[in-house]
Amino acid sequence: MEAEFPALVSARLGDRVAAVEVFPGTLGRVRFRAEAALDVFRSMRDDFAFDHLSMVGGIDWVDHREVFYVLWSDARRAYVILSTDLPAENPHIESATPTWPGANWHERETWEMVDIHFDHHPDLRHLLMPDGYVFHPLLRSFKLHEPEELEVKTRNV
Amino acid sequence: MNASSVTTASGTAKAPGTELPVVTQPGVPFIEIETLRAKEFLPAAKEALSAMIAERGREDLTQPVFNWAGRNSLFPLHWGLACCAIEFAAAFGARWDAERFGIVPRSSPRQCDLMIVNGTVTWKVAHKLIALYEQMPEPKWVIAMGNCATGGGPFRTAYSVVPGVDKLVPVDLYIAGCPPRPEAMLDGILKLEELIRERKE
Fold first, then answer.
1. Any idea which architecture B71-197 has in CATH?
2. What residues of chain B, 139 to 198, have a C-beta less than 8 Å from chain A?
3. Which of A33, A44, A125, B164 stands 20 to 30 A from B101 (CA)?
């Protein structure tokens, strides 16, 4: 299964997938195109039996952002990682919550921390921070504030 | 039969010296004592009390009573924010037994007069902390337990942490430590009792 997985993914998803890279401990790291996110999610769940979304995360690479999904398949007993790049200005991607309901809070956290907007998310609001919090703290551009400055900015929202 | 014993009408024997004492003065009926008390003693006492209140103020007389009652039955709010709550819980266990000082944690803020902020206060929980504080009836006190509640601790510059709970509610007493031992917490509460003893409205 491990050996033929990249070929299976390419045959199924065609040019929606740019590459399947080797990633230790998983079947591979599937680099897909952000526009085709919904097709990739559905295909991974229905065709490849990845029925559990383990986590969603985001990385700020300064010139672009990356969002990744870790999937687990009970039938295959294996992980796979989906990953895609988003532009640094107005990054947005289709939500995975309609496909895997467990993505809900993960996407809220990703949006809150690295400012990646998830389209068609049912409830995209703050998870770990109070409502109206103005910062996205895991961005590289976020600087550690003096406590007093942070307090004023947080309280006045 | 013993000659010195007294035999009552019902026939049971009584040992000498066990008769009930006389409760009323001979010759003065009980009702007259009560009348005397109502006519002379009570107005006099009332007058003396009024004079004391006029001289020293009502609060000055009643406050020590309330302070005494309050400081001997401090009810802290039973909640925990972080690892200081473990020490808080240990202080009420068998080894330190904080209840011997009349400190009983209560689960409702409406029954509490002491809030022990035991842990890191984040901005997310700040609203809830203020709501809990406002639900507590007056008079109320706040103890900032540990370095995080005192000034943010190691997370002082973090994006999610309130740098000291005194930014949110007035704090009466700070306990240093990371986390403070249960005996440090008990010492803090006993020092707070000394503060309450001297309290004036």
1. 3-Layer(aba) Sandwich (3.40)
2. 152, 156-160, 162-164, 167
3. B164
Q: Calculate mean pLDDT across residues B110-115.
A: 93
Domain spans of chain B, in order of start: 25-56, 71-197
**Residue range B60-82: mean pLDDT, rounded:** 87
Question: DSSP code of B121?
Answer: P
Q: How far is CA B161 from CA B104, B121, B125, in A?
A: 29, 6, 10
From B126, B127, B157, residue closest to A147, measured CB to CB: B157
Q: Report which of B201, B154, B152 is spatially closest to residue B174, judged by C-alpha positions.
A: B152
Query: Chain A: residue nearest B157 by CA?
Result: A147
Identity at B173, one-letter amino acid code: L
CB pairs under 8 A between A and B: 33
Q: What is the identity of the amino acid at A94?
A: E
d(CA A118, CA A108): 8
Rounded-to-integer distance, Cα A14 and Cα A22, Å: 18
pLDDT tops 50 at residue B53? yes
Kindly report the nearest CA distance between residue B181 and chain A, in angstroms: 27
CA B150 to chain centre: 25
Interchain contact A137–B (C-beta under 8 A) = yes
Task: Tell me if the domain spanning A5-124 has CATH number 3.40.50.150.
Answer: no
B21: phi > 0 → left, psi -120 to 50 → alpha, else beta; which?
beta
ipTM of the complex: 0.74
